[in-house]
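Margin note from the TA: students keep mixing up input and output lines. Inputs are the sequences; the output is the structure of the whole complex. Example:
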Amino acid sequence: MAGILIKNAFVIDPISGIKGEVMDIAINKGKIVEEAPPGSEIIDAAGCLTLPGGIDSHSHVCGTKVNFGRYMSPEDMRAGRTARKGVMHVTSGYSVPTTFGNSYRYSTMGYTTILEGAMAPLEARHTHEEFTATPHQDMLANTLFDGNWSIMEAVQEKDTRRAAAVVAWVLAAAKGFAIKLTNPGGTEAWGWGEDVHSVHDPVPKFGVTPAEIISTMIRANELLNLPHSVHLHCNNLGVPGNYQTTLDTIELAPDLNRERQSLYLTHVQFHSYGGSTWRDICSKSEDITRAVNNRPQVVMDMGQIMFGRTTTMTADGPMEFKLYMLHHNKWSNHDVELETGSGIIPVYYGRKSLVNCVMWSIGLELALLTRNPWQCLLSTDSPNGAPFVKYPEIIALLMSRRLRENERRMIDPRTEHFVPLFAIERELDWYEIAVMTRAAQAKALGITRIGKGYLAPGAEADVAIFSIRPDQVDPSVDYQQVMAGFSRTRYTIKRGRIVARDGEVVVEGANSTIWTKAIVPDAYDMSLDPEFRKKFEQYYTVRMSNYPVQDVYLPRGVRIETEAQL
Amino acid sequence: MKVEDVVCPFCGCLCDDLVVEVEGTRVVNVENGCTLANEKFMGDHRLKAPIRRAGNAWEEISYDEAIEETAAILLDADRPLLYGWSGTFGEAQSVGVHLAELLGAVIDNTSTVCHGPSIMAIQEVGHPGCTLGQVKNRADVVVYWAANPIEAHPRHMSRYTTFCDGFFVKSAFRERKVIVVDVRETESSQVADEFVKVNPGGDYAVLSALRAIVRGKRDLIPATVEGVSREQLFRVADLCMSAKFGAIFFGVGLTMAQGKYKNIRNAIELTEELNRHTKFTISPMRGHWNVYGSNEVFTWITGYPYAVDFARGIAFYNPGETTSVDILRRGECDACLVVASDPGAHFPRACAEHLARIPTVQIDPHVNATTHLSRIQIPVAVTGIDAEGTAYRMDGVPIRTRRLFYGNYPDDLDVLEKLYRIIREARG
C-alpha cells in the first residue's frame, strides 16, 4: 500500500494542539508519518477542513435490539433504501439502517470509529457478527452490567474487588470494551414489571441501590485500569423532574483518574427535565451544566433530539414501556436473564409538541452551557434522539444563533417560557466542533493510546477531509454550507486507505473490533469461583463453556490489555 | 472421544448440554439429548456424493461440476429463488443473502411456512419477549398456546419451564402453574394444571375474550366462547393477572390456523394488556434450530426477516407477494436453489410440482422429499456434527455449534462461497 500525502489541509487536531493551520499530512502503512514515501498519492485539500476521523462514543448500530428494531419495522426499512452499486451492498432503513447502511452513511460523513452503546453479554456474539458486517468503522461495545446478579451480590457484600473480577471475566468473555450501566437496578426490577425511581431506591429481592451499584462500579473500573470510565445511562430517563436524579448521580462521581473522567453520563438531554408532569416539564440544563462545569471528573454526551420520525431502543426496558403507554404505537421488550433488559418503540418528535420542543432545546443548551467542550460530546444517542445522519444539522445549530432563531419561529411558541435556549448567545467554533465530534471522544474512551482521535505521527491514519473552507465560510451565517459540508466528506481515509469519496464508499472495508482484557491475579479469576460457576450450572440457560465469544468472531480484534490492581 | 456441552442442531431449543461420544467420523452415543436429538446425531442417511439427474436415474458427479452447473442454472434464470436456510449456520446464510443480491433473486427462509405470520404481527404491534432464562428463573405461570412441546420441542419443559427450577422458583413443579390451550388433548395438555380446549379456528375469539376480561369487562363475556366456558376464561385470566411473572409460548397451531397473523397480533396485545397488571412475556416456539438465525442474518443485511426480493436492485419485502409459496404457485420462478430445508415435504402440492418442472438444486446432507424434485443435489457436512457456525436460539440467544469431527464433506459455507465466486466473476 503506497502512502498518501494530503497537501494544504486546514487541520484542526485538538489532541495535538493544532487549532486550525494549513499544513500537509503524510500517511504510510496505515499511520500518520513525518514524511510520505516516494510515489504516494497526492490529495490537494486546497484549504479544506481536515480533521481526525470522527468517533461516535454512543450509538446503537449493532446487536440484538438494534436488529429487532429493523425486524419489527418494515416501514423504516422502506424509508431509506439504496441499490447495490460498485462495492456498496444494498442498504435499507432510515432510523435503523442495515449494517452496511450504517457503515456507508457514517463513512461518508467522515466517521471511522463507533462505540455500540449497549451489548448484553449473553448476546454478545450477535453484536460481533454485526460488527463484522459494519466494515468501515472500528467498533467497540459497551457491555451491560446494570442488572448483573454477580455484580449486585458483590455490591451487597460491599466487595469492590469481587465486582472488578466479575467485570474482568465478563468483558473478556463478551469481548466487550467498557462497563455500561443502563438504569442500574431498574432493568432487574423490570424482570418483575417494576422500576427504581431514585438512586436510593432498593432493587427488589437484591436490596442494593443504584447509588451503591454506580459507586462500586466506578471504583471497580479504576481497579481494573480500564481505558474508558463507567458509561452510565442514569435512572429515571425521560421522566419529568428527573434532573434531581441526575444531580444525585453526578454527586456520586469521585475524581479517580488523571487521564480522563471517572464517570461518563450518556444522552443527558433525556435526564435534564424539571417539572412534575408532562404539562409543566421544563429545562434544567442550567442546573446540570453547572454541576458538570464544577466537576472535571464528569463527561457527558448530549443525546440531542431532532424533529421527525425515529426509533427508540435501549436496555432500559421499563422506560420503553412507559413511553409505549404514552405513544400507543408498537412495543417490543427483551429481558436478558441474569443481566439486563431492553425495549424498542418507534416515535415521532414533532415541532408542534411542546414536550418535544423542550427536549430539543435542552440538548442544545447542554452543549452551549458546558464551558469545556471536552466535557460535552455531540450525540443523538442514535437513533433514540435522531438518526446520526442528523449530526450536520446539530453542528449547524450549535454554530449559528441565527439558525436557532429561525427554528424558534417554527416550533411551539410556548417553548421559550420553559427553556433558556434563546437567551444563549454562544456560537461554537470549528475547534469546539472538532473536539465534540472526535478528540473528546478519543480521550473519554481512552483510545488515544491506540492512536485514535489525532493526526500526529504515530497515530492511526483515520482522516476526514470536508469540502468546507473555514477561511471562506462564516458558520454563523452560512449554516446551510455547514450542514452540507459535514454531510459528506471529500475524502474519508481509514487506516491509510481512501474508503469514501464525495458521498460514495469506494473500497470494501476491513474494520477492527477493539476490546479490553484486564489481567487479574488467580485469586480473582472468576472462572475458578464456585459461586460464579453456579450461576451457569443453575440459572443461565447457556453452559459456561458455550458462553464466551470465540476469537473467530473478531477477525481483526485489537485487544487492550490492562493490569488490574487487585 | 467424549465431547461435552455439545449444541443440538435440531429444534429451536438449541440445548447446549449434550454429551456426545464420537468414534472416528461417527457418533456412537448421545447423553442428555431427546429422541429427536439422538436421531439427528446417530442417524445415517447421508448422500455420499453430489448427484445429477440423468433421465430416470441419478449419476454421481464431482463437487466442482455440481457447483459449476448450479452457477450456470442460476445465471441463466430470470427469477431465481433461493429458499431454505434454517438448517444451516449464520455465516453460510450470510453468503446466501449476498448471492441473492448479486443475482437479483428472491431469498426466503422456512419462516414463510411456519412463523411468518408471527413476524407480520410483530411488525404491526411489536413483541414483548425475553430470553428463556427469564422464564426459568421467574415465571410462576406458563401458557402453551397451540403448541405441543413434549413432542415438538421435547426438552423445552425440562430446560426452561414446567419442570425446571429457577432462582426465584425453587420448586418449579409445585410453584409454577401450566396452562395449555389447544384444539385437542396432547401429551403436553396432560401435564397442564389447566387445559383449555378451543374449537378449531376459535383462538382469535378466545384471545379477545381474555383481553376483555383483563380490561375489566367480564360482563361482556357470553356463557361459552368457542367451546370454552366463561368460568374457565375467568379462571385463566385470574391466574394470569395474579402471576408475578407469566410467559406465553405459542406454536404453529396459532400461526397457521384460521386468522393466521391476526391470531398472533391478538395474543401479543393480550400480553401487552397483562403487562399493565403484572409482568408477562410472549415467545414463538421456533421450529428449526437456526430458523431464527436466518431471520436475524437476513434482517441485518437486507432489513427484512424473510421473503426478500432483489429483482429491482433494492431489497423489497411484501409477504404474500415475495414469499416462496406465492412465487412458486404463480409459476413465476424459473430456477430454485434449496439450502438446508425440505420444501418438497412441506410446501403445497402445486408448489412442489413447479419445483419439479424448473431446474431445482438442493444443497443438503440428506436424501429427502426435495431430492425427488431436484435436478442436482450437493451433500454437505451437518452443522453441529461435522461443521460449526453460529445459530440463534428461539429467543435470540446466539450460540456457536461445535464440530465434533472432521468428515469428508465440505460445509454449506464452502459450497456457497465457491458458487458466489463463480457468479460474481460472471456478473462482473
